[in-house]
């Protein structure tokens, strides 16, 4: 076994750097309540079954993982004090801390961690989520002693450490709770805050865990959180969140529109921060098995004929990043060679549609064939409509009609209908993004559903793509993996046009000047929980 001493070294260095940056004139103070306006209300409070990236901000208050990430993508101890990987890359040993307790009083030990891994293999528990796809890779789970967990995989899977570091751990009592699927106060974690109350449609409140003393080295301090209480108010409208902060109704907001960013930038009464996420860009995934998008020429016509940049500029006022590839520009696996290789070519787009047989148009200017209009239904889950994505899709809808004569129909559905439509396969496209790094996001979208691609919305099942995914997953060499994903990217986008990347999701946070310690999570770059936040007099 090879011990990861690098993770320990990076952790110590990170903590030292953070301590050095703390101003003597601004020492943190304990106490106080924080109110945070957020865009997205949770569909579930179970952190393992949560599929909403924005909700991670809330859930990380109470639930934690074995390892934390450094800004460069490395790993540092958290609930595991060290880890090692076998020479053959299939066995992972986690040596756990001895001083951690779940907030319900249950002991944090090897048995508790092993039970969490076992539930990733339980289809009755995690079917339909990305969890089961990773659990299926596990061969054995053992506990040599009370504070050691050994997980052996069926085959080499290079992103497994990334998966393990992101798995939020539940207490042993949680598995018997009637709230297991929905989440709630009965589901306990080890985090710096404890779920106190949830008022559906209104707010959720967490209170300080007074016994907390096991923050990772990426945190700015050790011991309990500075704040006594954090309340997140659900304010889905960007303008309402902005108004609430400007008027002092809340202390912090996230999810700031391009129009509203100017209210906080260079304003001494507020701070403003933003950062790109890792993972798959917000994209239109085109269904290769149903309707007009079965024809590769129709898919290519959309990819080539649309011009995304001016749409983003119009909707977001220059505050969002145009993307081209299958993963985030900040991901170490990103291949930028794809940039600028498609799009804004309506002449080619119209030529491709003519070749596909959609040569004539109806009175409204839409293309028709055999008496049928060229219509593509885009499905968007209502729970993930955020960041003005409804406005963005409307702009794409208008451009597709004007430039190509394509009728894009937008359909927003609830969670139950969304699952039904996905399973039926009867849709034209689904708009989606995904934040897991290290190629997990790519697998989620491009592996066949039954082979570990739970959100493969294009429904692609291609031997070439599957081969590149297998090759990338079976090597730990980042350069080789980037090469495999680069080949996959060129084929999936330029040749097969199974997706149209739109923009890379990012998070924006604005706060009153008396709020200190706001930070973004290392590497994944999403807003961190308020463990390090403190308030000065105001």
Structure description:
With 538 residues, the chain is α+β, with helices and mostly antiparallel strands. It has 15 helices and 25 strands. The relative contact order is 0.16. Helix 9 runs antiparallel to helix 11. It is globular, with a radius of gyration of 24 Å. It has a 7-stranded mixed beta sheet with strand order 9-10-11-2-12-23-13, covered by helices on one side.
Would you kindly provide a brief summary of this structure?
The chain has 538 residues and is an alpha+beta fold.
In terms of per-residue confidence, which ranges show pLDDT below 50 for 5 or more consecutive residues? 1-24
Secondary-structure-derived class: alpha+beta
Number of helices: 15
Main sheet specs:
7 strands, mixed
Backbone shape:
globular
Strand order of the largest sheet: 9-10-11-2-12-23-13
- Range of helix content: 25-40%
Instruction: List how many beta strands DSSP finds.
Output: 25
Termini, distance in Å?
54 Å
As a percent range, the share of strand residues is 15-25%
Averaging pLDDT over every residue, what do you get?
A: 93
Radius of gyration: 24 Å
